[in-house]
């Protein structure tokens, strides 16, 4: 850990280190561990656009709709940071586009064009 409560898995996901993610998970790292802001490793991989790591974490059964202290899910982060492919992958894997954060915003509200158009067609809309 560190001052932000990042685990080694948080750092590996943030920095895009897929081989380190594999090693940590194989050695028993908790997939849904939260930092001080309640972000999971999936939040960090999604916000930084590390598509390969997002897919790994989903395969490892990460909570795809985990909400942090502000109610933001990994999909909120992917949308806010315009990580279009990651957002599409998350939705295809079951991320809900209708979850509101603590400010009443859905991932769609956080998305910038053209990602907003892509998400409009996603269930349950």
Automatic annotation (TrEMBL):
Transmembrane segments: none annotated. SUPFAM superfamilies: Ankyrin repeat. Keywords: ANK repeat, Repeat. InterPro entries: Ank_repeat_dom-contain_49, Ankyrin_rpt, Ankyrin_rpt-contain_sf. ANK repeats lie at residues 4-36, 37-69, 70-102. The keyword Repeat applies. This is Uncharacterized protein. It comes from Micrurus corallinus. The lineage of its organism: Eukaryota, Metazoa, Chordata, Craniata, Vertebrata.
């Amino acid at each position: 850990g560190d001052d932000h409560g990042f685990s080694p898995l948080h750092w590996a996901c943030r920095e895009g280190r897929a081989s380190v993610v594999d090693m940590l998970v194989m050695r028993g790292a908790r997939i849904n561990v939260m930092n001080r802001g309640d972000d999971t490793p999936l939040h960090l991989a999604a916000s930084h656009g590390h598509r390969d790591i997002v897919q790994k974490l989903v395969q490892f059964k990460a909570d795809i709709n985990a909400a942090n202290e502000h109610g933001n899910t990994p999909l909120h982060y992917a949308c806010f940071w315009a990580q279009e492919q990651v957002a599409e992958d998350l939705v295809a894997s079951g991320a809900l586009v209708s979850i509101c954060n603590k400010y009443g915003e859905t991932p769609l509200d956080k998305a910038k064009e053209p990602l907003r158009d892509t998400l409009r067609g996603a269930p349950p809309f």
